[in-house]
Design a protein that fits this description.
Blueprint (H helix, E strand, L loop, with lengths): L1 H22 L8 H13 L2 H23 L8 H39 L2 H7 L4 H38 L7 H11 L2 H27 L5 H30 L1
Helix pairs in contact: 1-6, 1-8, 2-6, 3-4, 3-6, 4-6, 4-7, 4-8, 4-9, 6-8, 8-9
């Protein structure tokens, strides 16, 4: 019962933070500097690890598919399997998990430190809403950058799969045939569904991490605990949202 109360309280405070942030959306054009900075931190600095992981996820997916499908004489369909899997599921989920572990933890640590060392209270005293300058630019930046990261993840994953199918001896499919099958079975809706998933996951992760950071109490030990809690809650949220968003988009 106590855990359920904590979950409901967390949901309520997160919803309140979202509504407060959206009430200041008209001030976003005047916060271009903060918005661009967050786009850089959320998008550009995350791009290299997204590309590396996507390449190897696509490669492993093609390798496993080739090993299994050669027994059924269906290895020519590896391109469609890798393409659909990356676009609809693996790309968005991987990007969201990276955001939770890399960006979400940093956001929580920063905001929790500001809260513990009373910088948030100073902003409130000066009549500067924390939701306006600390939360809104991050929410706007994640909505812009996450689809870009998801598209790059898809493209790099497809390329990784093409490399494996060409150079692994028991598959040996030329890239032209690989991408021909991928284009044949890939629809724009599949890519769009993946981008919608990525948007929902990324927005949820940043919102949850901001809320946990702003509600941290205590000292340095609580900052570490808040970061851990933010990452764990974000990962659970991604998987829960994945089910409901997938069901809604089917």
């Amino acid at each position: 019962m106590k855990q359920l109360t904590h979950i409901l309280e967390g949901f309520g405070s997160t919803l309140q933070l979202l509504l407060r942030s959206l009430s200041y959306i008209g001030t976003l054009p005047r916060q271009r500097g903060r918005f661009i900075e967050q786009c850089y931190l959320i998008g550009y600095t995350t791009l290299p690890i997204v590309a590396i992981l996507s390449f190897f996820i696509g490669s492993v997916l093609a390798l496993q598919a080739g090993y299994s499908m050669q027994n059924f004489g269906a290895k020519q369909f590896i391109g469609s399997l890798v393409g659909l899997s990356m676009a609809r599921e693996l790309g968005p989920v991987m990007v969201a998990i990276l955001l939770a572990g890399r960006v979400g933890s940093a956001i929580t640590a920063e905001l929790a430190s500001m809260k513990v060392y009373q910088e948030i209270d100073a902003l409130v005293t000066m009549n500067i809403p924390p939701a306006r300058i600390l939360v809104l630019p991050r929410l706007a930046a994640v909505l812009v950058m996450v689809p870009v990261l998801a598209i790059i993840a898809d493209l790099v994953g497809w390329f990784g799969g093409a490399i494996v199918t060409k150079y692994v001896s028991f598959i040996s499919i030329e890239p032209e045939a690989y991408f021909s099958v991928l284009r044949r079975y890939m629809k724009f809706k599949d890519v769009l569904n993946g981008l919608i998933k990525a948007e929902v996951f990324g927005f949820g992760v940043v919102l949850v991490c901001c809320n946990i950071g702003l509600n941290t109490r205590g000292g340095p030990r609580e900052i570490g605990a808040a970061v851990t809690r933010a990452v764990v809650v974000s990962l659970i949220l991604i998987l829960v949202l994945d089910y409901f968003v997938t069901k809604a988009l089917l």
